[in-house]
Amino acid sequence: MSEAAATVRLFFALWPGTDLQAKLAAWAKQAAGRGRAMRRENLHLTLAFLGATEAALVPDLIALAAGVRFAPIRLPLDRVGYWKHNRIIWCGAGEEPQPLAALVGDLRARLDAAGIRYDPKPFVSHVTLVRDAASLPDAPAWIPLVWAARDFVLVSSTRVEGRVTYQVLQRFPAQAG
Ligand code: 2AM
């Protein structure tokens, strides 16, 4: 009998720089109420969520994502929202910038072509700031803020002593622009 293949929990994301992380995390803490503010180092914007994936596929995923061509993305963080269904407070762009939609479209098309499964829910750009939240707090003073994203990343997610821990496995830089 063959052993089950080793899997890793993976997703592609935009990862904020330290200044932006700090700003968002500080607000999340203050806005959390009885909810759980995301830790500074875990803040991100998911582009495609693969979930449990054969570890042996990681090199293929890296090669696939390295083929994605995109210009640096200016993402206005001009909205905070609250989703009742999953009780998260998030921030994102009121209007999705076209270069971000193009990046997600290209990445997902390459995953489709390679037969790699990911959560097929339509992309809605958002950075989760608070989980288990009860309501939408007042808008933060830093709105609007522009996130200049110059790369995207492949991330693995593990639980270390009950804590979700993310590890950036690879960065994929934008082309000059
Ligand atoms: P969320 O913040 O809206 O929950 C890691 O779990 C990241 O992948 C989170 O940003 C999460 O979004 C996102 N994600 C997208 N689809 C997911 C799914 N089906 N299960 C878990 N996380 C998912």
Fraction of residues in H or I helices: 10-25%
Provide the number of structural domains.
1
Question: What is the CATH topology classification name?
Answer: Cyclic Phosphodiesterase, Chain: A
Order the strands across the largest sheet as they lie in space.
3-1-9-10
**Total beta strands:** 10
Provide the structure class.
alpha+beta
The hetero molecules present are: adenosine-2'-monophosphate
Q: Supply the CATH architecture.
A: Alpha-Beta Complex
> What's the level 1 CATH class?
Alpha Beta
CATH superfamily: Cyclic phosphodiesterase
Relative strand content:
35-45%
Low-pLDDT ranges = none
Helix-strand blueprint:
Layout: E1 7-14, H1 18-31, E2 36-37, E3 45-54, H2 58-66, E4 73-77, E5 79-83, E6 88-92, H3 98-113, E7 127-131, E8 145-149, E9 151-160, E10 163-173
Antiparallel strand pairs: 1-3, 1-9, 2-7, 4-8, 5-6, 6-7, 9-10
The chain binds adenosine-2'-monophosphate.
Adenosine-2'-monophosphate binds next to strand 3.
Which terms summarize this structure?
Cyclic Phosphodiesterase, Chain: A, four-stranded antiparallel beta sheet, 10 strands, single chain, binds adenosine-2'-monophosphate, 177 residues, alpha+beta
Give a verbal description of the structure:
With 177 residues, the chain is of the alpha+beta class. It has one domain: Cyclic Phosphodiesterase, Chain: A (Alpha-Beta Complex). The protein is 22% helix and 37% strand. The chain has 3 helices and 10 strands. The chain has helices spanning 18-31, 58-66, 98-113, and strands at residues 7-14, 36-37, 45-54, 73-77, 79-83, 88-92, 127-131, 145-149, 151-160, 163-173. The mean pLDDT is 95. It binds adenosine-2'-monophosphate.
